[in-house]
Amino acid sequence: MRAAWTRALLLQLLLAGLGGCLSRGGLFPFGPGAGDLELEAGDDRVSPALELSHGLRFFDKSGIYSLYVTTNGIITVSEPPAEESHPGLFPPTFGAIAPFLADLDTTDGIGKVYYREDTSHSVTQQASDYVQKGFPEVSFYPVSVVVVTWESVAPYQGPTKDPSQEGQRNTFQAVLASSDSASYAIFLYPEDGIQFYTTFSKKEKKQVPAVVAFSQGSVGILWTSNGAFNIFANDKESVGNLAKSSNSGQQGVWVFEIGSPATASGVVPSDVNPELDDETDYEDEDYDSVTHLGLEDVSTTTFSYEAPKRGDTDTYEVPSVLSPHPLATERPPESPTERTRSFQVPVERFSQQHQQVIDVDEVEETGVVFSYNTDSRQTCANNRHQCSVHAECRDYSTGFCCSCVAGYTGNGRQCVAEGSPQRVNGKVKGRIFVGNSQFPISFENTDLHSYVVMNHGRSYTAISTIPETVGYSLLPLAPIGGIIGWMFAVEQDGFKNGFSITGGEFTRQAEVTFVGHPGKLVVKQKFSGIDEHGHLTIDTELEGRVPQISFGSTVHIEPYTELYHYSRGVITSSSTREYTVTEPERGGTTTSDVYTYQWRQTITFQECTHDDSLSAQPSTQQLSVDSVFVLYNQEEKILRYALSNSIGPVRDGSPDALQNPCYIGTHGCDTNAACRPGPGTQFTCECSIGFRGDGRTCYDIDECSEQPSVCGSHAICNNHPGTFRCECVEGYQFSEAGTCVAVVDQRPIDYCTTGLHDCDIPQRAQCIYTQGSSYMCSCLPGFTGDGRACQDVDECQSNQCHHDAICYNTPGSFMCQCKPGYQGDGFRCIPGEVEKTRCQLEREHILGAAGTVDAQRPLPPGLFVPECDKHGHYAPTQCHGSTGYCWCVDRDGRELEGTRTRPGMRPPCLSTVAPPVHHGPSVPTTIIPLPPGTHLLFAQTGKIEHLPLAGSTMKKMEAKTLLHTPDKVIIGLAFDCVDKMVYWTDISEPSIGRASLHGGEPTTIIRQDLGSPEGIALDHLGRNIFWTDSRLNRIEVAKLDGSQRRVLFDTDLVNPRGIVTDSVRGNLYWTDWNRDSPKIETSYMDGTNRRILAQDELGLPNGLTFDAYSSQLCWVDAGTHRVECLNPGQSGRRRVLEGLQYPFAVTSYGKNLYYTDWKTNSVVAVDLAVAKEMDTFHPHKQTRLYGITTALSQCPQGHNYCSVNNGGCTHLCLATPGSRTCSCPDNTLGVDCIEQK
């Protein structure tokens, strides 16, 4: 078993860098010569039952002894009904395995479909090898293999054939391998095997993409419903990549666990992670790039859904995939909402108090990242929200401490779900002398990525772009990545790994002395806990000398143990290790030599000193490290380390001696269960809170059915996996005591007077009160519609003006103006000139006196002639044609003192006629509805989705993908209502891009000098974009094309995220979710008048939105789980809604507010007027949602001082209240730029 595991892990590491496609020769043997049966030729054919000698397991079922094969790319566990013989909506009512579900055709012998059960050694071994590649931690050998091959099958094309599909044929294979305890599916797509991606649908009468999926089928006896199902590809892009990518390390090969205790609620895909090469993953607390099977994956661009991984227990880490029973994240109850409240089942194992966070101070001199503030005032009461959201706070006589609740592990300040895979990201820099060289090899800003399988204590670490001159010589230094293995080592009873002790916040310094070789290597590492992306962060520095290892050599390190000695805040260890270097073959022989190095390290961290029980842990613990693999990929310049780790008592002998199945991951407990070790090799499986069962199979407890009165009277109970939620019925709300009480005032409401109607804005419609609580909406004259959505009537189409006049349509009206050479009111025009303006008269007088009536002819030297704008007013900037001097003038043409510039330069001048200021309607502004044609745009990792709106209602059936960029992780969105362009931030490259709603290729406008661009905002009047960068901790501005960048703020920022503009008033607003001191700030757009708007009672303020009509600034907070609003010009703020799950981004317009939620993977609509969630939209693909913005069909009314002639500025025009500032970009060296307020 150990040899098989070793071979599988080595294959996994080697295959992570492979790029070769699967050839047809790589398929399992098929055809008559392999003993296959052949499906009858034709369309929509179904085979007779294939009787199996050994039962197949599928989802939560076992003992499936019959399978059916169809023409249309699926294998079924029961005979499909006649009405479902051709493909339709997924999922079907029957259990199905679909490697390529599409309407395929083998009529007239075009293509073949072969199938058989095979128990031969060669085929079962081949299947075992593929499964081991995809699941290296599993020891699996099948006793039965079902092989189904679709060879050169054609697409069904319907009545109108698609010429582009003429002659195209697909070849693919599905292999189902079963042992006594589990079943796996292997899908194989050879190179050039997938030539078409769509087929004609008999139901939809159009071309539809193929689907790669699994379905449990209908479940239930008296009342049936869809069982669990997983869709992994259902669009042209993902289907087109089936042969080009993989989840198992070899292109074209996809492996899935389809039947075992781990698949009760969904198929588990392989999770071999080649993305550790050179991509950064973002997930959980802040970002998730969907690193499993998603089209949204930064580095794997094939499948469309993030799927559960083997051993997952918490969908906060890994959302369930389209399962009717997704797992829920367990969270203690928060404050009640107006109408809804969440509850948890009482548990005796721990007291569910409000979560707290430790108040921390940074200490740089000692190298300690965090220190507890021991001031006597520091208690849980005045430090709430300071612990992890999965921790509880306890007061002690000298202070407080945090501890993770059951089901989570960590030091209380940082907690992660037990058994959940973890990711570690960071940077590496080095200055290393190799061998006897006198010249160091230097590198910096090199990426380090590590993936940890916590249930098995196994860490995979990849360091990219390591020069080959030093790459091989670093192979023996597995402890560089071994520190990550110590952090998440499997804990034996009574012992703690590094993360349980430090929470991932510590510094480490190590010295490596190579025996018999001069010099030493110093390793410095700083772990900074969980970052804004939900990953642990590490910075590594290497300096010193290492022995030279020849190119092409391999290094082998035997399993070893290491003793860790613990004292207050310090951990030390030292050891001597051997490694074997095998040089590449030369002259038919290879040489191997054994070398030794001595290792010493010191780990410094800060622990809570108030809880005496924390000091009771053993003073010495033994780390056992097994299955050590080190590889250097010369072609990709990637250094890889893989180790398995466990922490326990000091003992002699094998590291595996006396290990319990809970420690080594062979327990087989349900994904919603914890493994509890017993004596020796005994253990028990215990279902998680809110679930019931024997531990190997756990079912959700329906608290609403078992306790019908749990919510009390006048309330509705809604069951959720692991928990339940109470909601007051209409007319009732939660009281302080937690019960539903009647709303006091039930009298009829005049919605027109109170402003709570949904009529269009007062400029387009009127609300007419009828009686009781009824009203009607009516469009004003000049508009047409139903009163709730009114559109302007273009009166100019009816030719109401004089034939010698020009008609100008205006909202609700029109204007007639006589043509040049005519005068009158526009309805009647007679020949004659319009009265000239002062500027025009002065200009004619000067030209006439000079005898130069034609303005195009050269002027006499020294003569100045004023310039007039198109309306006849003095142009704000006037220049002397002979001398080249320029100056600013007022509305009467008088020169403004101090504005004259030297020849060749134009001063920034304000318009001589001030732009009108839009003050908004005089009625209650929260009732302003959305203009017709408005829609929402929201980001879903590598996609931007389009969701139309009808009034405040989301038109869910019309949602569609606007933009698909699978190599990006799109976070922030902003919309330009002028050019109809969407702008976004991408943290994968990183970059800022834009695309038109009318089509065309997306373009990247900024890609240099970015760290992690997140929030983005747009001033549609001044034509500028603003964005936050949480890695560089700054806020910048640039023109819409990305030019003229300028840093506005780079101080007093820790985690800036959401950002919005008030274009008319010239204000800027942003959030900073700094855990220690979250805040919401504002300034003018030019960066002046910076101040804090809110900083009390904030947790994780993420999204921010500003509504120009109501002057309301609203935000969503993932720490307090609230929506709150304030008016920046007034004091006080109001809580709109409480009890949110995990809000991320938000947008609003009038009374309508919409936010994206990470926990529910949905867009939620909120009515601000009644403070209530009104609707929820769940995208078809259940992956994490990020930014959201409102794409208005027409721009809001209003101007600022930059909206005309760029405010007279030479470069950046940044609006301020009642004025503007002309600013220069940061890179203006040698550029003529004038800064002026």
TrEMBL record:
Report the GO terms under cellular component. basement membrane; extracellular region; plasma membrane
**What ranges does the record give for the region Disordered, renumbered to this chain?**
303-338
Q: Can you say where the LDL-receptor class B repeats lie in this chain?
A: 980-1022, 1023-1065, 1066-1110
UniProt-listed GO biological process terms: canonical Wnt signaling pathway; cell-matrix adhesion; extracellular matrix organization
Q: Where in the cell is it found?
A: Secreted, Extracellular space, Extracellular matrix, Basement membrane
Disulfide-bond pairs as recorded: 879-886
Query: NIDO domain: which residues?
Result: 99-261
**Could you tell me which species this protein originates from?**
Erinaceus europaeus
- The superkingdom listed in its UniProt entry is Eukaryota
Task: List the protein's name.
Answer: Nidogen-1
**Signal sequence region:** 1-23
What keywords tag this UniProt record?
Basement membrane, Calcium, Cell adhesion, Disulfide bond, EGF-like domain, Extracellular matrix, Glycoprotein, Repeat, Secreted, Signal, Sulfation
**Xref: SMART domains:** EGF, EGF_CA, G2F, LY, NIDO, TY
- Tell me where in this chain the Nidogen G2 beta-barrel domain is found: 420-657
Q: What residues does the EGF-like domain cover?
A: 658-699, 700-738, 748-791, 792-830
MF (Gene Ontology): calcium ion binding; collagen binding; laminin binding; Wnt receptor activity; Wnt-protein binding
Its quaternary structure?
Interacts with FBLN1. Interacts with LGALS3BP. Interacts with PLXDC1. Interacts with SVEP1.
List, for all copies, the residue spans of the domain called Thyroglobulin type-1.
Answer: 836-909
Question: Tell me, what's a Pfam family for it?
Answer: EGF_3
Principal subcellular localisation of the protein: secreted
Query: What is this protein for, i.e. what is its function?
Result: Sulfated glycoprotein widely distributed in basement membranes and tightly associated with laminin. Also binds to collagen IV and perlecan. It probably has a role in cell-extracellular matrix interactions.
